[in-house]
Amino acid sequence: MEVYFQMVLDAEALRKTCAELENEKFLGFDTETTELDPYKGELRLLQFSNGRSTHVIDLRAFNDPKNNPDLAPLRVLLSDPSHIKIAHNSKFDAKWVRNHLGVEIEGIYDTFLASQLISAGDQDRRHSLADVAQFFTGTELDKSQQVSDWSANELSHSQVEYAARDAAIMVPLREQVADRVQSDQLNDVAELEFNCVLPLAEMEITGFNLDEGRWREQLEKVKIAQAKAADELQDMLSAGVAQASLFGRAEINLDSQQQVTDALLNLGVPVPNTTRAWELQPLAEKYPVVGKLLEYRGVAKSLSSFGENILEYIEPKTGRIHADFRQIGAPTGRFSCSNPNLQQIPHDEQYRRCFTSPPGRKLVIADYSQIELRILADFSDDANFIKAFVSGEDFHKTTASQVFNTPPENVTPEQRSFAKRLNFGVVYGIGASRFAMMTGLSQTEAENTMRRYFGTYRGLDSYLRESGRKVIAERQARTASGRMMRLRFDESDRQQVGAAKRNGVNMPIQGTSADILKIALRLLHESLRGTSGKLVNIVHDEIIVECDASEAEATAVKLEAAMRRAGERYVKKVPVSVDVHCADEWTK
DNA sequence: GTGAAGGGCCAC
DNA sequence: AAACGTGGCCCTTCAC
Fold first, then answer.
1. What is the dihedral of CA A280, A285, A287, A291, to 10 degrees?
2. Nearest residue to A136 via CA among A161, A167, A111, A113
3. Cα–Cα distance between A46 and A21 in angstroms, integer?
């Protein structure tokens, strides 16, 4: 593919280029950088294309890009939402532009996100620019220059041509992608996703403050506990091994399922098929060694997953953790997070209290109260379920009172617990045997309790059945925003049909929750503009903002308002409840 | 050595 | 009869 492009190497050329580009509604946009991490490398090239002519701006030709007034026309173009910047994985470009030019890219069309929405959860589809271009336009893209040396003083012709071509392809690519977004009725969810890029880019740039000293203190305690548990477990396990008496203790690898299982069998422990905690738990009382194994597992997990390794992610320039969030991390639309995963920090206060606000700052922490159950109440239109929320009382207690037909004040803790587990379980399509397993009820008792539950909530029951039927008939499920998930199953295989049904029934609930959170992030981003407030973490139904201590109360009001407004867009039949508080640490 | 798969477990 | 959804990380094991 031949690409016509011009290099932009001085202020005058930049002014002319920007004047020309300002006539365009859609601009293909891309950047080339010397590193992947915006805190490490250099933003080298910015490429714009209207589909006919392409301009490659070499930032190295401009001194001090962040403050250089010659770059003003470029900043205007980037931050003007009436010029749609079409980019592939725009979060990447947005972070670099934010960090190195000090502006936010407004008006984003992201072909990476659009491609993910269109593929509707198909895990086999790839979403690199080369894959997406091939799929939608049939164009072969040579990406061999992608990892070339962008820090060289003189860039080669093939490097610059590669850079130009990636921007040039975006305009025709968007036309194809947008047609498909339209025909798949994904316009609303696409808008919601594109609007979410900036808040996310900003959050990753900001990072989350981890108190290294506190983390190390905590670590030392766990290390001691781990060593003690390991030693004791080693002793107990080797008691049944013959060599123990001859050669001292027979060392076994405590992290090896195989070796531990063998050792347990030697000691006469009836090891179940799996050695997962919930299978072993019932044996712990009779066999102390099993209890010790569970104790060891707990501390070992803490030490390996939440140990020193996380400290290596602290960015020296900021002293903070800048994790990677995948905006469409799951087919349901939820985020995923890695390097490190800030969405799986143990709830235990010893861990969370290590995430702090720096001196003079505060954390504002807000989460939706039972948002998935409220979505379910709204979708199912079940009068009793809705009533339980509208009453504003303890939800699980109220449902227990309804299910067991007893006044709320007479509800036993056990009844409340059954109701709570069922309330959460129905969202996932729980079955009687699983319910029996987790409550200790017999199969019959579990079935009876579930019958009572669905007898009380007939509207919920029929919604879930109808939703399951529809999923199987249509082979797809959708959230309130129109986000789609296709389901693949062999209809002659009962297990596959059952799994697809549970999956498809759950997706609109979990996915609408994700829709709501993403809408909230955009509203929040706008209301925090010009304040000290910065988004620092999100965990599915929770948003954490860091701000100046003096603005904490005002920020809390803004955060709660954004979350409530977002929730109310899709949840109308029951109140949307947001719990918010200010703290110096990430704790309740 | 490296990478995939599977078990296990953390979050919501 | 019906076996609870979505992720990521760490470890061992096993194949290359």
1. 60
2. A111
3. 13
Nearest partner of A139 among A118, A117, A111, judged by Cα: A111
Q: What's chain A's length in residues?
A: 588
Q: Looking at the predicted structure, is the pLDDT value of residue A154 above 80?
A: yes
Q: d(Cα A162, Cα A1) in Å, to the nearest integer?
A: 10
Q: CA-CA distance, A260 to A237, in Å (whole number)?
A: 8
Query: Could you tell me which residues are beta bridge partners of residue A364?
Result: A545, A582
Task: Compute the average pLDDT of residues A306-323.
Answer: 92
CATH number for the segment(s) A381-507 = 1.10.150.20
Backbone φ and ψ of A152, nearest 5°? -60, 145
Nucleic strand C interface residues, CB < 7 Å: A 123, 253, 255-259, 304-305, 309, 326, 329-332, 334, 336-341, 343-344, 421, 424-425, 427-434, 438, 495, 498-499, 502-503, 506, 510
What is the dotted CATH code of the domain comprising A323-371+514-583? Answer: 3.30.70.370
**CATH 3.30.70.260 corresponds to the domain A5-184:** no
Q: Average pLDDT, stretch A235-259?
A: 72
Residue whose C-alpha is closest to residue A62's, from A51, A71, A49: A71
> Is-same-fold flag (A5-184; A212-308)?
no
CA atoms within 13 A on the CB side of A524: 37
> Both tokens of residue A446?
């579990």
Q: Is the pLDDT of residue A572 over 90?
A: yes
pLDDT digits (tens, 9 = 90+) for A529-567: 999 999 999 999 999 999 999 999 999 999 999 999 999
pLDDT of residue A247: 54
Q: Work out the average pLDDT over A399-422.
A: 93
Nearest to A537 by CA among A210, A191, A71: A210
Residue A158's pLDDT is 87
- Closest residue to B10 (CA, C1′): A344
Q: Report whether pLDDT(A107) > 70.
A: yes
In A239-260, which positions are buried (b, 16+ CB within 10 angstroms) versus exposed (e)?
Answer: ebbeeeeeeeebebebeeeeeb
Q: A348 or A556: whose pLDDT is higher?
A: A556
Both tokens assigned to A309: 């390794």
Write the class of the CATH domain A212-308.
mainly alpha
Protein CA at A351 to nucleotide C1' at B7, angstroms: 25
Spell out the domain ranges in chain A.
5-184, 212-308, 323-371+514-583, 381-507
- Nearest residue to C12 via alpha carbon and C1': A256
* pTM of the predicted model as reported, rounded to 2 decimal places: 0.94
Half-sphere exposure of A286 (CA within 13 A, CB side): 10
Q: What is the mean pLDDT of chain A?
A: 92
pLDDT value of position A276: 80
- A264 contacts A292 by C-beta, under 8 angstroms: no
